Amino acid sequence: MTAVPRRRVPSTPFGDDDGAADPRIVAALAAYERGEGGSADVLAALAAGRLLIPVVAVAESVDATGAEKETAMATVLTTGRDGRRGLLAFTCVESLHRWNPEARPSPVPTRSAAEAALADGAEALVIDLAGPVMFAVDAADLRSLASGWRPLGPWPGVGQADPAVAAARADTGDGSGAGSVWRRVRRRVRRALIG
Question: Which InterPro entries does this UniProt record tie to the protein (predicted)?
């Protein structure tokens, strides 16, 4: 593992965060672990949630006796067996302390965690390294979360879709709604394919 010193920890909208895991993320990770859900379900839950980025003290300089003179706070990167680096993130304080009881949690939206991973040159966001369920957000998925990707429709356990998207999909009943348009397009495509 390597620490990334001098990283500015952004202010957070989670001032009253009690450090508990988001139930939607926990449910998606548990389903993934049991083989009842896919990585897309976990990504959908993560996109709407927050993660805890661990911040640890790192010695910047030592005196002649070897004692620390100056320390800085740093985020933590880990290197996998394949050589890829990942920024550590956790779903709750309990899982963070299971990894390192001295690390301080910094709550951030998942998007900010993904942005930080990319800014630090990481290829992954490694979630809950010490369990209960470890999950890695890799490459394209990491870039998608960093760009603000969210599921367009309702996703099991994630909550309601964006109201604007739901309205665009709704049919007004008079045949002019977006739902009617898509049904007509599908019928035309089906007729064209069938002949």
Answer: SseB_N
Query: How far is it, in rounded angstroms, from Cα 22 to Cα 11?
Result: 20
Q: Which is nearest to 7 in space by CA: 88, 148, 119, 136?
A: 119
Q: 3-class SS at 171?
A: coil
Q: 1, exposed or middle or buried, with CB in 10 Å at 0-12, 13-18, 19+?
A: exposed
Residue with tokens 């980025």: 53
Burial of 144 from C-beta contacts in 10 A (0-12 / 13-18 / 19+)? middle
Please tell me the pTM assigned to this model.
Answer: 0.67
Q: Which of 71, 107, 75, 72 is nearest to 88 (CA)?
A: 75
Q: Report yes or no: 102 and 53 within 8 Å, Cβ to Cβ.
A: no
pLDDT for 60-89, tens place per residue? Answer: 666 677 666 666 777 888 898 888 999 999
Helix (H, G, I), strand (E, B) or coil at 120: coil
Q: Which residues are within 8 A (CB) of 157 and not within 5 positions of it... i.e. 6 or more apart?
A: 24, 27, 28, 31, 41, 45
